[in-house]
Specification:
single chain, 179 residues, mainly alpha, Nucleotidyltransferase, domain 5, 6 helices, 4 strands, 56% helix
Length: 179
Amino acid sequence: MLVVGPARSPRVVDRRVIDLSDARVPNSRQPYHAVRSAPPRDAVKLERSLCALVERISRRSLAALLREYRRQGHAVRAIALVVGSVIDPATIANDHIRAHALEGRLFRRVLERAARAARVPCATLVERSLYDAAGTRLRRRPNALRRTVTRLGAALAGPWRADEKAATLAAWLVLSRAH
């Protein structure tokens, strides 16, 4: 989501999905699932290779998006990532759920590094506490924020999904910090 304007009246001007994996390498979408099913002698090499690929694709995708926004006259001052959790994957006993947690951590970290490489501050926010944190910062009730975020999506074509609403609120939150 690209959110612009003063924090008291933000506008959503763009929404996009950027590539974090290589469509030609299906295992790069869920690298730790691939590692989990690899023979032990190949697992470390596969993990290193897939993680490096995810890093390259993510950095390239974010850099291209930032260039496009600059070309359109938008100066991106901050990036917000909304994540499901920041739990340490090592604390998860179930290896399938741990693979999901490892992937979440991988994608979060590569995006944080890509933002640093682009010299754009990056905030990582946990979805579960997003509306409460935003309510405190923006001095609005969480239910009022939900209604406002829903209205912000009306300017865009197509469905306005929960993840897009969360991304918009996170962008609004970092926009408020930048002013």
